[in-house]
Amino acid sequence: MNPRRPTRRRPLRLALLTLMLAWPLASALAQPAPPGWPDDVRPGQLLEAVFLERWDPAEVQARAGVAFGAYGPPVIENAVDLWRLRFVTTGLDGGPAMITGQAFTPAAAPHGDAPLLVYGAGTTGLAAACAPSRERELPVPLGYYRELLAPFAGRGVVVVLPDYLGFDDPLRPQAYFVAEAEAHVMLDAARATRALFATGAPVGGLRDDVFVGGYSQGGHAAFAAADRHAAYAPELLLRGAIGYAATTDVAALLATAAYYAPYVLLAYRDAYGDAVDPAQVLAPRFLPDLTREAGGICVDRAQQVYPYDVAAAYTPAFHRALQAGRPEAAAPAFARALAANATGLTGHGLPALVIQGGQDVIVRDATQEAFVAALCTAGSAVDYLNVPQARHRDTRPAGFEATLTWVWTLVAGLPAPSTCGP
């Protein structure tokens, strides 16, 4: 099930092209332009790179305290440079769209040229104000992503954190859990970061090795990128995918944590059309203010407005159908969209590291273990780590050292660790 392709371009498109054509090309244009694109615009093209600041090792470690908690402090080997990037990706209409991202680069090279980790954020909301790049503007950061990701660069790994498609478009919501859009953003973020290093601005060099990873929704995005890498960005040397409490099965998420459903419904209605009907899914009391509420509030507020309990959030018919594993019985178009956006199991064959928390009430152990088993069956070497006392968001710091060990193992050309059974 592919996102719909509107025949009428939105007004933002013209403004976007004006901005893009005003910037010197910052990436190689060896591949042909996609159909309908300007000849000098490509997916992954870097439009802007702004150096923000440098954190010395002590500052990286001190700032990490709020994100790592009991799983820190992380060991930091070098200072870190912070950047703001803007780059091009492919939008839902097939044309170019602009994405904002953050990059974290080592200010020294303790291990030589650095591998690249493209990291997808967890759920923050649909509105522009909820974008990961703008979390410093919120009263309380939603993910503490700077504090979480700068330590990777402090250990010699370049990290780029892109916003998702839609955060830079005032006319549509974030393309939440739309696998194609997430994959494009993740892979184009890798292209843009490579273009940044081609300018010579960051310290040191960048290896060809690229990894995709992410937390919760970001795990969905990472495995979406793994699924579509060969078709969309075959020139990238994609070495593996990492999931921290990865939400690769959206239907399973909605069966345990209902307060994400309004976001998914608005995003899928935008992507797939009005056949995705919120009235078939949500209890009537949540319908009148759905666009204003779910379309405008960030996830911390959404978890107060909408219930976690599935019986309270859904219509009785959808609740019964979802619990029976047959959401199509109550909401056929929505069920088709959910099925089309499951990620990771196309047989991409990439190694994977999956980190799960034993106290996670959003992505349950049984759901994650079923995904790991299917991923093994599909041909990937999967290293599955369950941290018994970790909650959903704890998987990020709990998996920090394991991630570094796994990444450097693959960079060294050693066999991918695997916990897959016979």
* Basic shape: globular
Within CATH, the superfamily of the largest domain carries the name: Alpha/Beta hydrolase fold, catalytic domain
- CATH architecture call of the largest domain: 3-Layer(aba) Sandwich
The helix/strand series, from N terminus to C terminus, equals: HEHEEEHEHEHEHHHHHHHEHEHH
Summed up, the domain count is: 2
- Helix fraction, binned, reads 25-40%
Alpha-carbon Rg, integer: 20 Å
User: Unreliable runs, pLDDT <50, ≥5 residues?
Assistant: 6-28
Strand percentage lies at 15-25%
Q: Would you tell me which CATH topology of the largest domain applies?
A: Rossmann fold
Number of strands: 9
Number of helices: 15
Mean pLDDT across residues? 93
Distance between the termini: 33 Å
Can you summarize the main beta sheet? 9 strands, mixed
Which labels suit this protein?
2 domains; alpha/beta; 422 residues; globular; Rossmann fold
